[in-house]
Design brief:
The structure holds two protein chains of two kinds. By secondary structure, chain A is an alpha/beta fold. Chain A has ten helices and seven strands. Chain A has one domain: Thiamin diphosphate (ThDP)-binding fold, Pyr/PP domains (Rossmann fold). By secondary structure, chain B is an alpha/beta fold. Chain B is globular. The chains are: A alpha/beta, B alpha/beta.
C-alpha cells in the first residue's frame, strides 16, 4: 500500500524543540501556521523575523529563520531599518497587544502609514501574558486583570482599542485583516490571511497586517477549552473577524 | 575634493556619505536639522534611503534594524532626542550591532535651550540607557576633525560591532568652516558571519539579541562585552597635546571649549607663561594615562567645560592627588571667552 504523508512538521520549525508556551495557548498554533506559510512560499532562507517583548520573545527558539530582538513596542521601527537596507528579504514583526497597541502605538501606526513592505502578525489575547495578567489596551470591558481586579471600567481606562479598524482609517496599508485561532475553521482562515499578507509583501504591494484573536488560559484563569470558547463568545462580538482593507479588492 | 566652505552639520552628513553611509533615519530637532535635510536630498539619488521617523525612539530602532543587516547606517539628533534614543542604544550595544549616532549638543536639562552646550558628557560616556554597556564617544573640536571622526566612526562601529557617538556641540553644528571631504573607503569587514539577511550564504540562520534568561549566559555575555570595552581602552584612546610638555597649568577641555582655550594658551605663551592642554578626542575611552602623566609635572590642572563639571570627574580620577584641580564651567548656551579663560589662568598662576 502506498503511504501518503498527510501531516508533518514544517521545515522551518526547528527540529526537536518544544515550546515554553502554556498548554492551550494560541501562540503555538499561530507559530505553526506561520511556519507552514513560510514553507509554502519557499522563503525560509530570506526571511527575517522580529521577536517581541512578551510571551513570544523566545519565538526564535522555534522558528528557524533569521531573527532580531526588538525593544518593547519598537519592532515596527526595526522592521523599517531591516527592510530599507535589505529590500530583498521578507521581514515580519510578531507582536502582542501590550507591545503593539500600547507601548508601540506610535511605531505601528507610522509603519502602516509609511507603507513599509513588511508584514505584522498581531496577537490579541486581551491581556499582558508574560508579566502576569495585567490589563492590556485590548482587555474587554468588565474583564478582570491583575491591574483591574474589579474588571475593566471604561470610565477609568476607556474602551478596548480595535487596532484593525484604527489602522484601516489610513490610506496607505495594503492589507488589514482580523482572524482567530480559536477553532479549526478559524485556523484555516487565519492561515489563508497570513499567507496573503506575506504574498502582498513579496509582490511589493505594501504593508500587510493580520490580527489574530488568541487566548491566555493561564492569565484568564480558564481551562484551555473554555478559554477558546471565551475568545469566540466574548472577544469576537467586540472584535469582528474580517478583512478591513485589501488593495486587490479596492482595485476591482 | 578641494577645500570648501561648509556648515558643520552638512559637512558631517557629506562625510558620512563619502564613508559609504547610504541610509539615514532621523527626527527633526534643533540645532542639527541640516543633517536630515541634507540626507533626504542626497541619499535617494545614490540608491540609499532617508526615513523620517515618527520619533527619536523609532529612529534609533530603525538604525538598529539597518545596522543588523551589516549596513552602514546613521542617525543624528540633539540632547533631548538622544535621551529618547538611550533605550535603543542599550539594545544596540547589547545585540552588538554597528551604528553611528551624532549628537549636536544643546543646553539642558529638559527642553533647556537650543544654544550650544556640553551637558551630555555623562549621558554619552556613562550610560543613558540601562545596563553595562559603553558607547565609543568621539569629540571633534573643528569641522575638519568632525569630518574625519565621522568617517572613522564607521570603521570603529564595525570593528567593535558597537554604537559610536560623535559628540559635537551646537557651535560645530551651526558654524561654517573650510573643510576637505574625501571619499573614505575605510576598512573592509566581513559581516556575513553575523549580520541578518545572509542565511543563504551562511547556510544557517543567525539571531541578534540581548535577552539571556539564564544568568550564567547573561554574565558571560557581559564579560564578553566588557572585554570589548577593555580592548577599546587599550587600542582607541585618542587625544591631542597642546603645549602640554612643560605646562605648569594643564588645561583639560574637549570640543569647541578646547578650541577657545587654545587661543588663550597661545596668548599666555607669548607672555612666557607655561600653559598647555590635553584635549581628549575619545571621551570613552578617556585618556586617563595621558592626563595622569601630564598632571604629574603640572602645578595645577584646570578643567573647562560648557557644563557644570562632568568630564571633571574623569579628570579627578586620572589626576588623583598629583595636582590641585580647578573647574571653570559655563552652561545654558554661554560659551567661554578667550579673555575669561586667560583671566582664570592668571588667577591660578
Amino acid at each position: 500500500m502506498k503511504e501518503t504523508k498527510v501531516y508533518e512538521r514544517p521545515k522551518s520549525w526547528k527540529k526537536d524543540v518544544h515550546t515554553h508556551y502554556c498548554p492551550g495557548c494560541g501562540h503555538g498554533i499561530t507559530h505553526r501556521i506561520l511556519c507552514e506559510v513560510i514553507d509554502e512560499l519557499g522563503i525560509q532562507e530570506k526571511t527575517i523575523g522580529i521577536a517581541p517583548v512578551g510571551c513570544a520573545a523566545l519565538m526564535y527558539d522555534y522558528i528557524d529563520v533569521d531573527f532580531c530582538e526588538a525593544p518593547h513596542g519598537r519592532a515596527p521601527a526595526l522592521a523599517t531599518g531591516l527592510k530599507r537596507t535589505r529590500p530583498d528579504q521578507i521581514v515580519f514583526t510578531y507582536q502582542g497587544d501590550g507591545d503593539l497597541a500600547s507601548i508601540g502605538t506610535a511605531e505601528i501606526v507610522h509603519l502602516a502609514n509609511r507603507g513599509e513592505k513588511v508584514t505584522t502578525i498581531f496577537i490579541n489575547n486581551a491581556i499582558y501574558g508574560m508579566t502576569g495578567g495585567q490589563m492590556a489596551p485590548t482587555t474587554l470591558i468588565g474583564q478582570r486583570a491583575t491591574t483591574c481586579p474589579e474588571g475593566r471600567d471604561p470610565n477609568l481606562t476607556g474602551y478596548p482599542i480595535r487596532v484593525c479598524e484604527l489602522l484601516a482609517t489610513l490610506k496607505t496599508p495594503a492589507y488589514i485583516a482580523r482572524v482567530s485561532v480559536a477553532q479549526p475553521k478559524y485556523i484555516i482562515e487565519a492561515k489563508k490571511a497570513i499567507k496573503k499578507a506575506f504574498e502582498y509583501q513579496i509582490s511589493g504591494k505594501g504593508y500587510s497586517f493580520v490580527e489574530v484573536l488568541s487566548n491566555c488560559p493561564t492569565n484568564w484563569g480558564m481551562q484551555p477549552v473554555k478559554a477558546f470558547e471565551w475568545t469566540v463568545s466574548a472577544m469576537m462580538p467586540y472584535y469582528p473577524l474580517g478583512v478591513f482593507k485589501d488593495f486587490d479588492k479596492e482595485a476591482e | 575634493m578641494a577645500r570648501v566652505l561648509m556648515k558643520g552639520t552638512e559637512a558631517i552628513a557629506e562625510a558620512a556619505i563619502q564613508a559609504g553611509c547610504k541610509y539615514f533615519f532621523g527626527y527633526p530637532i534643533t540645532p542639527q536639522n541640516e543633517i536630515p535635510e541634507y540626507m533626504s536630498a542626497k541619499l535617494p539619488k545614490i540608491g540609499g534611503a532617508y526615513v523620517q521617523a515618527e520619533s527619536e525612539v523609532a529612529a534609533i530602532n530603525m538604525v538598529m534594524g539597518g545596522g543588523a543587516t551589516g549596513t552602514k547606517v546613521m542617525t543624528s539628533s540633539s540632547s533631548p532626542g538622544i535621551s529618547l534614543m538611550s533605550e535603543g542604544l542599550s539594545y544596540i550595544a547589547g545585540c552588538e550591532i554597528p551604528a553611528v549616532i551624532v549628537n549636536v549638543m544643546r543646553a539642558g536639562p529638559g527642553l533647556g535651550g537650543i544654544l550650544p552646550a556640553q551637558g551630555d558628557y555623562f549621558q554619552a560616556t556613562k550610560g543613558g540607557g540601562n545596563g553595562d554597556y559603553r558607547l565609543l564617544v568621539l569629540a571633534p573640536s573643528t569641522l575638519q576633525e568632525a569630518v574625519d571622526l565621522t568617517q572613522l566612526a564607521f570603521d570603529l562601529a564595525f570593528k567593535y560591532r558597537n554604537p559610536v557617538m560623535i559628540l559635537a556641540d551646537g557651535f560645530m553644528g551651526q558654524m561654517m568652516e573650510a573643510v576637505e571631504i574625501n571619499e573614505y573607503k575605510g576598512q573592509e569587514f566581513d559581516v556575513v558571519p553575523w549580520a541578518l539577511g545572509n542565511m543563504e550564504k551562511r547556510g544557517k540562520r543567525t539571531i541578534l539579541k540581548s535577552l539571556h534568561l539564564n544568568p550564567e549566559d547573561l554574565e558571560k555575555h557581559n564579560f564578553k562585552l566588557n572585554e570589548k570595552y577593555k580592548r577599546m581602552q587599550e587600542e582607541e584612546v585618542r587625544y591631542e597635546e597642546f603645549h602640554a610638555e612643560d605646562a605648569e597649568v594643564l588645561i583639560v577641555a574637549f570640543g569647541t571649549t578646547a578650541r577657545i582655550a587654545k587661543s588663550a594658551i597661545l596668548n599666555l605663551r607669548k607672555e612666557g607663561k607655561k600653559v598647555g592642554m590635553i584635549r581628549p578626542i575619545t571621551l570613552f575611552p578617556f585618556p586617563y594615562d595621558a592626563v595622569k602623566e601630564k598632571s604629574d609635572k603640572a602645578k595645577h590642572v584646570l578643567v573647562i567645560e560648557m557644563n557644570m563639571g562632568q568630564m571633571l570627574e574623569d579628570v579627578k580620577l586620572a589626576v588623583g592627588e598629583r595636582a590641585p584641580i580647578s573647574f571653570f564651567g559655563h552652561a545654558g548656551g554661554i560659551a567661554h571667552s578667550v579673555q575669561e579663560i586667560e583671566d582664570k589662568i592668571r588667577e591660578i598662576l
